[in-house]
Amino acid sequence: MALRIDQDHSRFKAIVRGKIKQNLRKYVQQGEMIGKKGKDTISIPVPFIDVPHFKYGHKEQGGVGQGEGDVGQQLAPGNVEPGDGQGKAGQGEGEHSLEVDVSLDELAQILGEELQLPNIQDRGSEKIVTTKIKYTGIHTIGPESLRHFKRTYKQALRRQISMGTYDPNNPVIVPLREDRRYRTYRLENLPETNAVIIYMMDVSGSMGDEQKEIVRIESFWLDTWLRHQYKGLESRYIIHDAVAREVDRDTFFHTRESGGTMISSAYKLCRDIIKADYPAASWNIYPFHFSDGDNWSADDTRLCIDLLKTDILPQVNQFAYGQVESPYGSGQFIKDLREHVGESTNVALSEIADKDAIYSSIKDFLGKGR
Q1: Domain 193-366 in CATH: superfamily?
Q2: φ, ψ for residue 51 (rounded to 5)?
Q3: What are 122-150's pLDDT values in tens digits?
Q4: Alpha-carbon 283 to chain mean position
Q5: Using CB atoms within 10 A of its CB, is residue 89 exposed (0-12), middle (13-18) or buried (19+)?
Q6: What's the rounded Cα separation, in Å, for the pair 288 and 183?
Q7: Phi, psi at 172, each rounded to 5°
Q8: Could you give the 3-state DSSP secondary structure of residue 314?
Q9: What are the domain boundaries of the chain?
């Protein structure tokens, strides 16, 4: 019976996984889904799954249930006749959806399979060491929190049988102090490869709420994939208009500024953060910059190119620039990047016209496996 339940559960999980893959493009566009995120899971509405339910059998002759009616006629509660209800009947079939909890790690696997994303090649030559508890055996002494119930029970049972005090008709097992068994453990130092994402976003007057929502949704999927690839992942957030400053995540997605745009201010701060906290020998570094492509001047764009070539690209796994379409932005900056650094192996550029384009943009950013 337990085996059949396990098989049914595995089959149901496979169905859910298939439905998620089938509707992944739709899920990628949904910002409200991100709000349902737990610590390690996310709730996803999966449509068109038939949950097992009872059905009425064939009408028998005689006995309870006999009476007028045809085979296949639906039963109504009480004596209510069809058509007695209020309101108009719809023509379309109802959509039945079931919310399921999916781990972020499994969601990343589905994303990788569907977009055919390569696993990232670690470039760090050093590793961060973390400590993990590993249980190694059983001992006769130890704290009560580590008492091994099954081993204690078996030891007490063995003792009572050997002493002739065990009564099969009254199988009461009373462990004594010498019967108790405890887990033993040791601490292990495990190497852990770390990575950092440095998000940069233009928050000048030309970047509206719609553009920021696109950035928020895309950053969720970028985070999900990179956390699947690395055991340790840090995130830093930089906003800029004419000047740049580091902020927390909530401020990053909800700040509205006005005024001009000077992209070099963000690249300078990004350079300083990398230099101060993330040596390339031990960190995998991912700067992601989002803007509408409008910069203050051609001189500042040239400064941005110099900062990328000299200070940022030599230190990072990949620099990614996403240009979110805005009715107020010129869109020139991505053209300049394509001309000057577009051929670099660790540069990824993507134009994001709307939420529909997030799906392909994720592949633009993560498809190189860097």
Answers
A1: von Willebrand factor, type A domain (3.40.50.410)
A2: -85, 135
A3: 665 455 555 667 788 898 888 888 899 89
A4: 21
A5: exposed
A6: 46
A7: -95, 125
A8: helix
A9: 1-46+96-116, 129-189, 193-366
